[in-house]
Predict the 3D structure of the following.
Amino acid sequence: MPYWRLSGYYLCYFASLGALVPYWALYLQANGFDALAIGQLLALLSVTKIIAPIVWGYLVDHSGQRMPLVRLGALLAALTFLTIFIAHSFWSMAAAMLLFSFFWNSALPQVEAVTFNHLQAQSSRYALVRLWGSIGFIVVVSLLGWRLEQDSVAIIPLWLLVLFIGVWLSSLLIPDSAPVHNEKPTLSLRHLLQQRPIITFFAACFLMQLSHGIYYAFYSLHLKAAGYSSVAVGNLWAIGVFAEVLIFLITPHLLDRFGARCVLLWSLAAAVMRWLLIGSMVELLSVQIIAQLLHAMTFGTFHAAAIHFVHHAFSGRTQGRGQALYNSLSFGAGGAAGSLIGGILWTDAGALMSFSVGAMAAAMGFVLVWRGMRMK
C-alpha cells in the first residue's frame, strides 16, 4: 500500500482545487464578467467532468493501463492551462477553461480506482488517504486568501499553474494496480445501470452536487458582498475543509457500522440545513462558521460513502467506468446544473432564493435515497 505516494497526489490535486473553487469567481469578476457569465464559465468546469471521466474510463477499462493515462492527463492539464494567460473575452476564456479542465478532470476517478485496488479488503479506510487532499485544500485556500490581501487577483492563475505541475509530478510516483476481482461473476455495465438502487444513487448524487454547484460558484461572492475580507473568505472555506479532515478520521468506522445508505441520508439532511443557513444569515459570522462545519457531512461523509458504494457496486472491467460515471453525473452534470441555475437566479432572485433551490435539491435527494436505495 503506497500510502504516502497516493496521499501526495490527493494533497496536490485538492490544493489546486483550493485555489480554483473559492477564488476563480473573484478572478473572473475582477476581469469584467458579470454573475451570469461567471455562472456559465464555472459550469464549463463541470461540463468537462461529464465528458472527460467517461472518455478516460473507457480508455482505461479497455487498455488496462490506469496510471500512464493519469500522468498524461495531468501533464496536458498543466500545459493547456497556459491558454488562460491569453484569454480575455468571454469566448476565449470559455475555450481555455474547457481545454484545461477536460484534462484536469479526466484523471481523478482513475486515481480513486487505483487507491481502492491498493486498499483491497480495507476499502472503508479510503478516507484516511483522502484526508490529505483536504489538508492541501486548507493550506492553499488560507495562504492564497492571505496573499490576496496584499496582491491582486492576477496571482491566482500563477498559483494554479504551479499546483497543476505539482499534480503531474506527484502522479509520476504512484505505482499502477490491477483491478481487484470478486469471486462473483462481474455483471455488465448495462445490467448494473438497470438496477434501481444504482439508478437512485446516481440521481441523488446529481441532486447533491447541483446544490453544491450553487455554493461553489457563488459563496465567495456572497461573502464579499456582505463585507467579508479576502482573509475571512479564505478562512471560512478552510473551516469547512478542516471539518472534512476530522470527519474523514472516523468515516471508516461509520461506514463499517452503518453502511453507505445511512451515511448518505445523514449527509443529505445536513445539506438542507446548511444551504438555508448560508442563504438566510450571511451577515452572522457564527452562523456561517456552523454552516461551514456542516461541510464535514455534506461533502466529507457523502463523498466517502458514495465512492464506497461505487467500489462495491462496480468491479472488474466496469470499475473505471463506474468511478467515471459517479464523477460525471454528480460533480459534472450536477455541478454544471448548479452553476447555471445559480447564475440565472443570483442577480434577480438573490442569494436566499438561490441557496433555497440548493436546499430543495438536497431534500429531493434524501427522499430518493430513503425510498429507492436499499444496498450498501
Observations:
- The mean pLDDT is 88.
- The domain at 3-178+190-372 is CATH 1.20.1250.20 (Growth Hormone; Chain: A;).
- The radius of gyration is 19 Å.
- The chain is about 80% helix and 0% strand.
